[in-house]
Specification:
The protein is α+β, with helices and mostly antiparallel strands and 167 residues long. The chain is built from six helices and eight strands, in the order E-H-E-H-E-H-E-E-E-H-E-E-H-H. It has one domain: 2-Layer Sandwich (Peptide Methionine Sulfoxide Reductase, Chain A), CATH 3.30.1060.10.
């Protein structure tokens, strides 16, 4: 049975493109997670006044891609000590976060967070919270880098190859 988790990793265009390269990811969708307004649109979230993070809904097959492995790969795509910034993108909408549905995922999330923290002297700035709300972004923001291969992406191209070969 497939599982779902929501990952915020800066600009959702690159994050979605990266995550969907990983074998075992069944579906991805860009959107806005854990904000304060109903039915936000990109132009509202972009103001940083709605409380939303750009995020990717990730549906994955845990038989092929265990949550632990998915999170380890997620951490390769972010600067986990950076507050409200990834690459050149800054603002609260670009914060990092792991938003879960299943309380049973918390132990795995906490374990991976502890392992990653060992590699940094500064504290991790990755939110870990239950998903309270998620609103899909409009169609122009879905699979953006497939539609615009030369479009903006804060992630290095080599990272996409890492994702394809990861498991």
């Amino acid at each position: 049975m497939n599982r779902t988790i929501y990952l915020a990793a800066g600009c959702f265009w690159g994050a979605q493109h990266y995550l969907k390269q990983i074998r075992g990811v069944v579906e991805t969708q860009t959107g806005f997670a854990n904000g304060e307004t109903e039915n936000p649109v990109y132009e509202e979230v972009y103001t940083d006044r709605t409380g939303y993070a750009e995020a990717v809904r990730v549906v994955y097959d845990p038989e092929v891609l265990p949550l632990r492995k998915l999170l380890q790969l997620y951490f390769l795509s972010i600067e986990p000590t950076s507050v409200n910034r990834q690459g050149d993108d800054c603002g609260t909408r670009y914060r990092t976060g792991i938003y879960y549905i299943e309380d049973g995922d918390v132990a795995t999330i906490d374990e991976v967070m502890r392992e990653v923290q060992r590699d940094y002297s500064s504290p991790l700035a990755v939110e870990v919270e239950p998903i309270h709300c998620f609103y899909p972004a409009d169609e122009s923001h879905q699979d953006y880098l497939d539609k615009h291969p030369d479009g903006y992406c804060h992630l290095p191209q080599a990272l996409f190859e890492v994702a394809r070969k990861a498991n």
